[in-house]
Amino acid sequence: MVQNRPWVTFCSHAILILGVLLVAFPLYVTFVASTHTLEEILSVPMPLTPGTHLWENYAQVLRSGSTRGAAAPVGRMMFNSLVMALVIAFGKIAISIVASFAIVYFRFPLRRTFFWMIFITLMLPVEVRIIPTYKVVSDLGMLNSYVGLTLPLIASATATFLFRQFFLTIPDELAEAARMDGAGPMRFFFDVLLPLSATSIAALFVIQFIYGWNQYLWPLLITSDESMYTAVIGIKRMIVGGDALTEWQLVMATAMLAMIPPAIVVLLMQKWFVKGLVDTEK
Amino acid sequence: MAAISLRNVVKRYRTGVQEVQVIHGVNAEVAPGEFVVIVGPSGCGKSTLLRMVAGLEEITGGEVAIGDRVVNNLEPADRDIAMVFQNYALYPHMTVFDNMAYGLKIRKMPAAEIRSRVDKAAAILELGQLLQRKPRELSGGQRQRVAMGRAIVRQPLVFLFDEPLSNLDAKLRAQTRIEIQKLHRELGITSLFVTHDQVEAMTLAQRMLVMNAGRMEQFGTPEEVYHRPASTFVASFIGSPPMNLMNHAPGARAGTIMGIRPEHLDVGNSGWEVQVETTELLGAERLIYGRVAGEQIIVRSAENQPNPAPDSVIRVAPREDRLHWFDAATGKRI
User: Fold this and answer.
1) Into how many domains does chain B fold?
2) ipTM of the complex
3) Domain around B301
4) CB A261 within 8 A of CB A197
5) Does residue A95 belong to the interface with chain B, where contact is any CB pair within 8 Å?
6) Is the alpha carbon torsion for B294, B298, B300, B303 positive or negative?
7) In terms of Cα–Cα distance, which of A26, A23, A157, A175 is closest to A100?
8) Residues 176 through 205 of chain A touching chain B, CB cutoff 8 Å
9) Model-level pTM greater than 0.80?
10) What residues make up the domain containing A246?
11) Which one, A112, A168, B135, B242, has the greatest CB density within 10 A?
């Protein structure tokens, strides 16, 4: 229904603007806090306009973290987070697309059993199996390593299920036509399935990158070496016991920095992301 | 060009513990360069038979030979055949050119040769302007032509068509039918064409293979099938409206079924008494539905003949030389 009533337009805009402010205000406060000294932040009321210590604070955390909490440079943490997010995103996509290719296009004994086994793991999130997983990773000597950070999180029932559903919508005749054309299974996979899945892959990449970047519990458990901290863990480790001691301006600067890469990924892939969620090239 | 031999071809599916037989021993010899249409109602196994020739379905029993090679255990790509699918199965992300060239690229043909073959096929099918388009930018008829082009560039021994016209509207279908005929005359490649549409079958076929419930009912030219149907099934399946089949027709012997086509009944002053039920004017002709000796009968008369009123009685004379007789028990022609 299209209406043109000034009052309705005003109201809807007001509500939307209010919503945006509500979401944006904490972000703004974070930014403001990252530009002041600790004394200024702790004064009551806290200043709500940007201060003059922006470069100082950001340079400090990027080079050498906080002075009282963890002293690992945030630059290093960002790199760790990036590695973790990228390996998880690509790993998940690679493994689940191949797994669903097998489940949809090949007939092998216990095919359905395997599918349901994968599917059932959907009901077991990381948190539920975290103790046994920790035990395994620790026994394999993978604590404080990139492998330990990423490998246990790579297997993904959700992505496998998503690709399976997508492959099922591709008409069988396409596979048969490729067989007629003389394309073997892997050729069909690379020449036909992969290009057709491009938008789904892009959408999944955005979701999984953010999932990997925001991992908290798992890296918290298995990283004790400062050089392996991720940005999210870095923030946690900078907060020391008593409030007074925590350098909030540095914590906030780190939080701002930690927000940037996911935001960039979303902005750059927005078009693909939406396309992947709503339509398929068929 | 190659002959196709179907020798006692059988297909069984296993569903759980049950085994279902869908093709019951089909024997047929298709001559080199011949255009054969496989026709039958849906579920009669005609597509399965074609897919067995294509290599997309395993052959449970018997032999399929293309040329002098038994192809039972060959991959579809090694059978030297090309297939046009009902939904065309074009690769959505490739241009028309790439769609046609894909099979040739896989066979590692030199790029120049691929280009010349695709250009030639595009010229025949009038696709020249569309080579750089994606399938989704094409109309149904154009997609259908691309699917044919993909088959043509392969220069195979055999073309297989799986109801390629069923997704087109009526006008385009008639037009494409003529194009396929022309194409076959020019290329002379042995073709198997599956359809459930008897008009397509009659107009395209050099010989037609009529199937019912997994069995071959008749294999012959359209004229043979129309004028000498081998069974009551063929008699009622081919021809529109279908042949009148009567158990108790005046003058019929017990244990036989008499068949006569609606156009071989003449309205006049002699012959059977027909109780008229309703009539339909189809333009050039009129169909009269009625009953004779309690049995349903359809009579085809010209539109300039008088239109009999419902419940009136008219007299209809069958042409004696056009009567068909079938065994009532087996349905076979006597």
Assistant:
1) 2
2) 0.84
3) 241-327
4) no
5) no
6) positive
7) A157
8) 176-183, 187, 191-192, 195-196
9) yes
10) 65-278
11) B135
